[in-house]
């Protein structure tokens, strides 16, 4: 589905407003997972509902990749994302999880977004010692969660 909207300033969760009739026509509920394309740049997200408005978050990275800025009118191509959301664990993080059954069980119960947070924290480390520290921190957090 295509529609036109304005790029809103990025503070506190503005981005691209989606007309309610577009969200309804997608048929995925009030907060459907979607594939968004703006100026040939595509990313996956979910429609958010804030103060009665349907919004698509638009990160700085996605604004730059799409070549758009605040205040600009853009054409948005939106489609329902029916592919399963899968987070790929880095090998070292996966081995550490497999070696810790409580952490693995807690991790496997997490929603995809929380799994992605752990993976991004590990992958964002530049030094091996930072990566190892972040893996241990994730395991400790997951063990705590398993104890609850």
Features:
single chain, 148 residues, alpha+beta, Elongation Factor Tu (Ef-tu), domain 3, 2 domains, 4-stranded antiparallel β-sheet, 3-stranded antiparallel β-sheet, 6 helices, 43% helix, YdeI/OmpD-associated family protein
What would you say this structure looks like, in words?
It comes from Streptomyces durmitorensis. It holds the Pfam family DUF1905. InterPro entries: AF2212/PG0164-like_sf, DUF1905. It is a single chain. By secondary structure, the protein is an alpha+beta fold. It has two domains: 2-80, Elongation Factor Tu (Ef-tu), domain 3, CATH 2.40.30; 91-147, no CATH class. Helices cover 43% and strands 24% of the residues. The chain is built from six helices and seven strands, in the order E-E-H-E-E-E-E-H-E-H-H-H-H. The strands form two sheets. The chain has a four-stranded antiparallel beta sheet. A three-stranded antiparallel beta sheet has the order 2-6-5, with no helix packed on it. The chain is elongated and about 50 Å long. The chain starts with a strand and ends with a helix.
How do the helices and strands line up, and which of them pair or pack?
Blueprint: E1 2-6, E2 15-17, H1 20-26, E3 33-38, E4 41-46, E5 48-50, E6 53-57, H2 60-66, E7 73-80, H3 91-98, H4 101-109, H5 112-123, H6 128-147
Antiparallel strand pairs: 1-7, 2-6, 3-4, 3-7, 5-6
Helix pairs in contact: 4-6, 5-6
């Amino acid at each position: 589905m295509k529609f036109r909207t304005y790029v809103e300033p990025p503070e506190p969760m503005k981005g691209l407003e989606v007309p309610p009739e577009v969200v309804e026509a997608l048929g995925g509920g009030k907060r459907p997972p979607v594939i968004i394309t703006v100026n040939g740049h595509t990313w996956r997200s979910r429609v958010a509902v804030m103060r009665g408005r349907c919004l698509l978050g638009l990160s700085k990275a996605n604004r730059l990749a799409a070549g758009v800025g605040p205040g600009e009118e853009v054409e948005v191509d939106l489609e329902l994302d029916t592919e399963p959301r899968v987070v790929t664990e880095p090998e070292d993080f996966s081995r550490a999880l497999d070696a810790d059954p409580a952490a693995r069980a807690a991790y496997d119960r997490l929603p995809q977004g929380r799994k992605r947070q752990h993976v991004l924290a590990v992958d964002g480390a530049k030094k091996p010692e930072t990566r190892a520290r972040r893996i241990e921190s994730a395991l400790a957090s997951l063990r705590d969660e398993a104890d609850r």
